[in-house]
Write a structure and sequence with these properties.
Length: about 200
């Protein structure tokens, strides 16, 4: 479905998927090597529609659906508003954020059920979701750190990029929760409009 979702599927009211839009990713982490509070707002991600499905497991008996996706490159631009510390280095800023993620593997774990619409058509509904992800590299640029102080901004951006995978690992639970909310809506917007008879064969 990904190539079709890139431009949207108007026949079933599925909106355009590329660029992938996320209204807000909230960061609330008050302990550990990374302590941050704030948001990435109005985030646009380019590349998710190039995802390759590596594995799918549907457990009808227990209502479980697990999907593993591989995405070669994701480029994002957003607005950020963050303050805190990254590996003991202070970070404060409001401005534009750009990220380049490579070889992103996303594992999505879902609880699903199969309700019937008023016209007696069965569809799938995601009731709960957990998202885990990893990548081989991450490049970050945060503009306007420390009210535009170029020296401090360059220092922090350089430090972030040298330790980007460790920082992402510290924040992945926060980010995963925000992604789960978005992915859950996408799944329900899609599969909530596509009758299961078109994609889920019945056991004879």
């Amino acid at each position: 479905m990904f190539p079709y979702m890139a431009n949207g599927i108007p026949e079933v009211a599925i909106p355009r998927f590329e660029p992938f839009y996320i209204e807000k990713i909230g960061i609330t982490k008050g302990h550990g090597a990374v302590t941050l509070l704030g948001n990435f707002n109005r985030l646009y991600a380019h590349g998710p529609s190039n995802a390759t499905t590596k594995n799918v497991r549907l457990d009808l008996k227990n209502g479980g659906l697990n999907i593993s996706l591989q995405i070669p490159i994701i480029k994002t631009e957003s607005q950020y508003d963050l303050q805190g510390n990254i590996l003991l280095l202070p970070l404060v800023g409001i401005g534009e954020a750009k990220l380049l993620l490579k070889n992103v593997t996303t594992d999505v774990f879902m609880k699903v059920k199969f309700p019937r619409l008023p016209n007696d058509v069965e569809v799938m509904e995601v009731t709960d979701m957990h998202v885990n992800f990893r990548m081989t590299s991450c490049r970050v640029h945060l503009d306007n750190l420390f009210n535009g102080n170029k020296v401090l901004g360059h220092t922090v951006n350089t430090f972030i990029n040298k330790n980007s995978l460790e920082i992402i690992d510290e924040l992945k639970d926060n980010i995963g929760e925000s992604l789960a909310l978005v992915f859950k809506k996408i799944m329900n917007d899609s599969f909530g409009r596509i009758p299961t008879k078109f994609w889920l064969p019945e056991d004879e």
